[in-house]
Amino acid sequence: MTFISILCALLIEQLKPLRADNPAYAAIRSLAARMEGWFNAGQESQGRLAWIVMMMVLIVPTLLLYWLCTKISPFAALALNILICYLTLGFRHYSHYFTSIQLALNSGDMVAARRLLAEWTRQDTAEMEVSEISRIAVENALITTHRNVFGVFFWFLMPLGPAGAIMYRVAEHLARAWNEPDHMKNEAFGRFAVKAFYVLDWIPARLTAIAFAIVGNFEDAIYAWRNFANRWNDEAIGIILSAGGGAMGLRLGASSEIAADILPADASVIDSTAAIIDSPPGEEASVRALQSTVGLVWRALLLWMLLLLLLSLAVWLG
């Protein structure tokens, strides 16, 4: 049932992509803001309580509804699985930015490419050249694909099922929403959300990196992972970008001064102690790197689906 649910959700999303500003996501953002307003008094313990309450409000009704659907009919449970998978997966949420940037660069329209990248990352891109635009687009594509697809896959397969997928996506949002805005930066309230998402993303991030290594240049991916992942402030991002860059033969990441300005708040990278001269192996990102990224992501997705199919068959035959 899990394989069929994910496959159907992916097919539906290809036909009718769910917009990033859809009502379901807007409701989650509104609830997160309300929780912050109700609980935030500047203490980490209050952030922990708000996080737990937020999860209970979403996960408990989902589990009850799923249990009710299983009692009614297997088809009702399957329909609920497909719906939640469709709402939590985000394979096409931001792909229009990536595709549009690729088309703009291919046609030599730097103004459009900079504008699209600025809309996507919410950063100043006025002075960026082709290589920098390409690198940032590749980095954001790898991170958003992991958090919107592969991380959801992992938690959808866990015993919580659809509730696990919701927990992962909401945890990712809270880690950003309670730390990213100007009025929330450096506040104790959002620290627990970051710690919680770190735990939830620990295994998925490494599985994504392994998938990139398997479907790409395995030796370079593992080498970059082992030797350069610690250059990023965010451990999970470092693992994914170093392995993804090594798998494609690209040199991802920038100096800490540049990275702080060009990547979104949920993807702050390279540690200031990293020596620029000792950089990861690979070529500088170019327009061709965007096409390589598309191929890597699709191959990784097919690998996940193949493994899921084999697991489903083993369970069914067993």
UniProtKB/TrEMBL annotation:
It is a multi-pass membrane protein. The chain crosses the membrane at residues 49-68, 75-94, 152-171, 192-216, 296-317. It comes from the Bacteria. Its main location: membrane. Pfam families: CobD_Cbib. Keywords: Cell membrane, Cobalamin biosynthesis, Membrane, Transmembrane, Transmembrane helix. One of its GO terms (cellular component) is plasma membrane. It is found in: Cell membrane. Pathway: Cofactor biosynthesis; adenosylcobalamin biosynthesis. GO terms for molecular function: ABC-type vitamin B12 transporter activity; threonine-phosphate decarboxylase activity. GO terms for biological process: cobalamin biosynthetic process. Converts cobyric acid to cobinamide by the addition of aminopropanol on the F carboxylic group. HAMAP family: CobD_CbiB. This is Cobalamin biosynthesis protein CobD. It comes from Noviherbaspirillum cavernae. The lineage of its organism: Bacteria, Pseudomonadati, Pseudomonadota, Betaproteobacteria, Burkholderiales.
